[in-house]
Amino acid sequence: MSQSASGVVDMETPSGEAVDSFSDKLSSLGADFRRWDVRRIEALLDLPFSDLIHRAQQVHRQYHDPNGVQLSTLISVKTGGCPEDCGYCPQAARYHTNVENQDMLTVEDVVAAAAAAKAQGATRFCMGAAWRGPRERDMKSVVEMVRAVKALGLEACTTLGMLKPGQAEQLQEAGLDYYNHNLDTSPEFYGEIITTRDYEDRLDTLQKVRHAGINVCCGGIVGMGESRRARAGLIGQLANLDPYPESVPINHLVQVEGTPLHGTEALDPLEFVRTIAAARITMPKAMVRLSAGRREMPEAVQALCFLAGANSIFYGDKLLTTGNPEAERDKALFDKLGLHSI
Ligand code: SAM
Ligand code: DTB
Ligand code: SF4
């Protein structure tokens, strides 16, 4: 361990393997040095911008193709009318947004959308539902959708809310590759945003997913009026999951009229970039996804996010209910930046 000039205690070494065995040795002495203290993450976020990006680039280049970006396409398989009260979400029944409720899509609709996503170059297809959690009868359709998406040769991901015992296993048997369930923010700020389910509920679902042998996709939202410390708190929670998630979506709040968070003061875009860098440094092997909010983000900010270690995006002109850059625009951006899809 070394103390850098900036005051950050440096646990990384040029070799990740060395860090792993170093941590193992320390752990065998009874201390869990793999845990990220929130103050250490805050210290990362406080670094001079260039120092932070340099560190993120070093980690990124050690573990990933520096110009490779993975493409995931989203679809909402059941839209609106959700009983939860997530303050950012246009699909919560209690807020008056212009999202129209829509029943569950058919398997045929999903297959057609997945085939189109594959033809555009996506490698993963993510199916989202506006539920607190799936009912048993919903699981039958979801399982069919997962099987159908896998049969097309795509990776399959679902985000269906909280899971009950046995449901993760059903998804795993259907061949599900990833389950997305976000922690959203730090435990301390969480209660300002959501009251109908608590942090522990989320951790519990993540544990069920992990135990079933499905890859974990878990991240959060930035730009909800949270402090830098809260952003550090979110990254710390994610990085301290054991193991940390394989996929970490960092969403920028998409402000939707009618939701409580509409009108939140805009976040300095460089704070968003810093959060991506902190995710990259603390979760070296994870795919860090530059997620919601790209349509509203200048290309130069997106370029900084890739520089900071983002290596996955949502691809296709729609997220769940809000817009995303058109595929053609992203292809042009990739050309401009010399990026390629992986
Ligand atoms: N209903 C399920 C749940 O909440 O677990 C799955 C779908 S939910 C829409 C998936 C994630 O989308 C949320 O956890 C949140 O992180 C993200 N999200 C929703 N609305 C958003 C918005 N307006 N801006 C950014 N991210 C958003
Ligand atoms: C995630 O972290 N972001 C995606 C996905 N997982 C499900 C959702 C973003 C939703 C943005 C608002 C909307 O389109 O409704
Ligand atoms: Fe419902 Fe998910 Fe939206 Fe929360 S984020 S209101 S659980 S759809």
Q: Structural class of the helix and strand makeup? A: alpha/beta
How many domain modules?
1
Tell me, what's the shape?
A: globular
State the end-to-end distance.
Answer: 34 Å
CATH architecture: Alpha-Beta Barrel
Number of strands: 12
Q: What portion of residues is helical?
A: 40-55%
Bound molecules: S-adenosylmethionine, 6-(5-methyl-2-OXO-imidazolidin-4-yl)-hexanoic acid, iron/sulfur cluster
- Enter the CATH topology name: TIM Barrel
H/I helix tally: 12
Would you identify the regions where 5 or more consecutive residues have pLDDT less than 50?
1-20
Could you state the CATH homologous superfamily? Aldolase class I
- SSE topology string: EEHHHEHEHEHEHHEEHEHEHEHE
Question: Which value, in Å, is the CA radius of gyration?
Answer: 19 Å
* Oligomeric composition of the shown chains: single chain
Largest sheet: 10 strands, parallel
Overall residue-averaged pLDDT value: 93
CATH class annotation: Alpha Beta
